[in-house]
Design a protein that fits this description.
The structure is a homodimer of 186-residue chains. With 186 residues, chain A is an alpha+beta fold. The first copy, chain A, is built from five helices and five strands, in the order H-E-H-H-H-E-E-H-E-E. In chain A, helix 1 runs parallel beside helix 4 and helix 3 crosses helix 5. Chains A and B meet through strand 1, helix 2, helix 3 and helix 4 of A and strand 1, helix 2, helix 3 and helix 4 of B.
């Protein structure tokens, strides 16, 4: 019998299939390096990482909904909490918190104190404009679009740039009406 | 107190940090897709995936040696067994077997019945020459080079090409003398 309510990120993370985090980290690092070689412009790499993340997010949302037993969030506030407490835990195994809400409740920050993507990573001087973790903001943007929320996701703080944590700003731009047919990007 | 002998792949896999396998699979898929877009030629993509794997392998070997308590293999036969039973289990969580040894004991096949890299993957007709999992053969080649074995690693069977399993041929080309200084590819 399936559990009646939403499951915690820890419980889901413990039950899903996983791979070694270092393999993931190094594979991601090799990807970024390859993009830097192929595309040359750091700004282009940022864009591609975001787009790759978006393509992942629009598919990952299915696994998320299936495994988490979360069917619908009341509002954007609850959505942000679910990303931080369940989503990031379930996929990356990290803890995150939501903070810095604006008065309208349409913009907040998700703060990560840990991030397996950047283990062993140091940016050379030539890559100072690189948003190394842009794939992650893309994933969140893509996943939210599949549940009818058009968002803008931006890195405000980045440990690879000397900040003391990762801060991701998530801004709700538009709530797409539920009856809108999903666009198939595949 | 550290355990005295080598640890099993299962035990190590249970104890290391991990991330969600689907996230890994989709990230790898996005990488391959990106390379296909950027490089256009399937043969070029095969080469790049292999090179990315090689760069990962020469770093991953350190984690492998540290976590597995394996210090040195007696010969190439034992090495192949360790890759199949410990390495692939520890990093990908899969079971593999070694088979098809040649008379000299310098060439064998590693057979995988499962492979998280290819979940949800179907190759379009335009990509029939693609060795989708070439990153994996590159990882093995890179890791072995760091323990003084120069090898050639080739896919003989591939489930994405309609075979019933994955078969990776590992051929020992040269055993580099132990005193040889490691080449720093970084």
């Amino acid at each position: 019998m399936p559990p009646a309510g939403p499951r915690s990120g820890d419980a889901i993370f413990a039950s899903v299939e996983r791979v070694n985090a270092e393999l993931f980290t190094l594979t991601y690092g090799a990807t970024v390096r390859q993009l830097l070689t192929d595309l040359e412009e750091v700004e282009e790499v940022n864009k591609q990482l975001d787009q790759m993340g978006y393509n992942i997010g629009i598919r990952l949302i299915d696994e998320f909904l299936a495994k988490s037993n979360i069917s619908r969030c009341v509002d954007f506030k609850e959505t942000a909490d679910v990303i931080a407490k369940v989503g990031l835990k379930m996929f990356l195994g990290v803890n995150a918190t939501v903070t810095n809400w604006d008065a309208e409740g349409t913009c907040c920050s998700i703060v990560l104190e840990d991030n397996p993507l950047v283990d062993f990573v140091e940016l050379p001087d030539t890559c100072q404009g690189l948003h190394y973790c842009n794939i992650l903001s893309g994933v969140i943007r893509g996943a939210l679009e599949m549940v009818s929320m058009k968002t803008e996701v931006t890195w405000l703080r980045d440990m690879l740039r000397g900040d003391d944590m990762f801060e991701l700003q998530v801004k709700l731009l538009k709530q797409i009406p539920e009856e809108y047919p999903y666009k198939d990007d595949e």
